[in-house]
Amino acid sequence: MDQLQALLTDVLREGIGAKTAAIAIVIIGLNVHFGYTGLLNMGQAGFMLLGGYGFAISVAHDIPFVVAILIGFALATVFAMIIGFSALTLRGDYLAIVTIAAAEVIKILGNSERFKSLTGGSLGFPSKKYDPAFLNLSFFPHYKTWQILSFNYADVSTSAGFRIFGWLVVLALAVGLVLAGMKLASGTRKILVMVGLGVVLLLAALFMFPLTELSTGDSKVGDHVASSTGWWVVFVGWVLAAICTGIVYLLTRSPWGRMLKGIREDEDAIRSLGKNVFAVKLQALIIGGCFGALGGMVYALSLGAIKADDQARPMTFLCYTALLIGGAATLLGPIIGPVLYFFGQWTIEGIVRFYVPDSFLSDQQAEPTAYVVMGTVLMLLVIFRPQGIFGDKRELRFHV
């Protein structure tokens, strides 16, 4: 029982952690590209790398924090314009080939020995060079741990029956959230219901699986201050994800946003109305790329180092998987999709490590097994519910 409690607590920690928030921000940008505009961008990891490197290297060279963020955005904008002017006239698979090749160029440059003094090469750019500037902005207490909900199940009962009942309540709320996303018609009511259920589900989960972390993310060992992931970066990550979601909400309900959807459905029809389709697609590419760069910055803050190999092709595929799970061209799909993805991945890995005999699957095979299962889930989703869990089939289908 205690082992299962520990497993589910770790799953919750990863599911709402800073890494998940960073991926959600990246997927919001990808949703602007693929979901709303119909651009098959397979190079979103390149925007992440440029944002992360631009921000981290700038901060390490004592450039002001806000300016460092703007440098990350500027690099993403230049990258988007290079791709846009050279490849936005292409469609479908051809655009995907160009964007994935462009992202590979960024990864190769990041790993190159020629730029090792700047990027750290294959060893990565260590977080100790840029973390302190971020941690100093924290208004959370330093060098202290913090539990989000001080009142939890242990204050009521630690019996197995009460814990199982609590787990079932959390599961029921999760199922209710999924059903609400699937059954309710798109609109403000659906968004409000899902947000409300999501908040209740989060509180219930934190009650049953209390999380204790460093409040700011710094710890002191003797006279040395070491940085690590804490509630501060988690808080910043999800606040930024909420802000980005709000920006997309406003954009997609503007005339410009409706033009994006028109381009996705039939760009020739939009062009016949006298609209500059290329300019709008380039704007969407830049905006989505800047979201990707911002996600790369948060991702860098959640890790011990920025490594180009951590944000290569598999990262883009992970983002597409999570987007399709949540639902492309939806407002909350990019937020809930990565949460569900990481919940599923870490649950499968934990089950393999703790409950499957080593003679059948070893601990080293836990992660590959999780990828196989999640890949199978994606295939079934594309076949039986191509609009994703929270998508509307009248809005967008992932054609296979």
Automatic annotation (TrEMBL):
InterPro entries: ABC_transp_permease, LivM-like
Protein name: Branched-chain amino acid ABC transporter permease
Annotated TM spans: 21-43, 63-85, 160-179, 191-211, 231-251, 284-306, 312-332, 368-384
Domain of life: Bacteria
Chief location of this protein within or outside the cell: membrane
Organism, as annotated: Nocardioides panacisoli
Keyword Membrane tagged: yes
Cell location: Cell membrane
Topology of this chain in the membrane: Multi-pass membrane protein
Pfam families: BPD_transp_2 (PF02653)
Keywords, alphabetical: Cell membrane, Membrane, Transmembrane, Transmembrane helix
